[in-house]
Amino acid sequence: MKDLLLQRYGISKDYYEMGQEVERTLAARFAEIDEIRDYNQLKVLSAMQRAGLSERHFATSTGYGYEDIGRDLLDEIYAEVFGAEDAMVRTQIISGTQALTIALFGLLRPGDELLAATGKPYDTLEEVIGIRPRSGSLQDFGVTYRQVDLLEDGTPDYAGIEASLTPATKVVEIQRSRGYSYRASFSVEEIGRIIRTVKAKRPDVYVLVDNCYGEFVERLEPTQVGADLMVGSLIKNPGGGLALNGGYLAGTKECIALCADRATAPGLGKHVGASLGSCRRMIQGFYMAPHVVAESVKGAVYTAALFEHLGFQTSPSSQAHRADIIQAIRFEKPELLKAYCRAIQAAAPVDSFVVPEAWDMPGYESPVIMAAGSFVQGASIELSADGPMAPPYIAFMQGGLVYANVKLAALLGAQAVCKERG
Ligand SMILES: *Cc1c(COP(=O)(O)O)cnc(C)c1O
Question: Ligand 1 pocket test: which of 212, 235, 361, 386 has the largest number of ligand atoms within 8 Å of its C-beta?
């Protein structure tokens, strides 16, 4: 490893040794991550064995996809692992945003109110909800929206959430991950507390958790602490890097039935949707997911520790509890953010020769710089980093199928950033 890092990748001896030293301080953190990984691995394995997974489930259906046994078995496995009554995992759900849209339109009716309990939801939901007006949004269908911002210290405003529940409130939305904001992610324990706060006053509302980036980072999932429904993307954690696309919903039988009717057609529900050959990769990906998520989390912890060592502010810190796979680093200067993203790109298995430039992405106020070289387009369970070219020049990095690759990326990044800093 040392020879390759020094000779092939141009890491200087000083940075190599710094990396070794930083890694030695993380032994206890890595042991905790391994324990969570092993626990989740057995949870997944056991569900596959209990469901009777067999070669025949990897066959595919076509057309309407009636009686697709692989697809139905995958639903059963997801439900069991997530402690939910039912689940719907589909190649026809093209992204996390679509899974969330199915959930919102499945549960809400004209006159109902949606309450966001952890501040403004993920960017792509603004037009779905109608925060940014758009034809076809929930608002366009007569669903009103209210949001409870986080407190100054980034924690949920429990009293504010309770006070904002009105007779019209039908769905309370919680976002587990920080997404691309510089706030803490919420542990499943904290999510449980929000749910208890809501249910104490309004046991009849549906609590929906945006679980993107959260799966397998902790031992429990939101559906195991009372969430009625949670959703996520298969090109993030639960696809394990193998799923080529897809999304899932897991929750109560009632919620899944409502959402299935929205996703396909009222009356068709979960009965249709050909898997088109996707079952093998989706099932194997779910099997790999606890391991791959642990590799990502180790990579994020190592990256945080290395940049802390160099005097940068990170969130979460290398020692903090984690509830998702995202790592933020504050660079304060545009050149440093750019140098970091370029190093991440250079470390990727795919498109390592590409040099990222900031560009005006639709929907963003400032230019955004992105680094990604993944086997699956846009997969953020694979190593990727991006950041808006605006103060305080924060890079959000996530993913990494293999820890050794993230480690290389962090070392290249550290060396490039410090060279630029002078
Ligand atoms: C990624 C993400 C989404 C949206 O998922 P896409 O697959 O990109 O549409 C929603 N919420 C959070 C917190 C996410 O991280």
Answer: 212
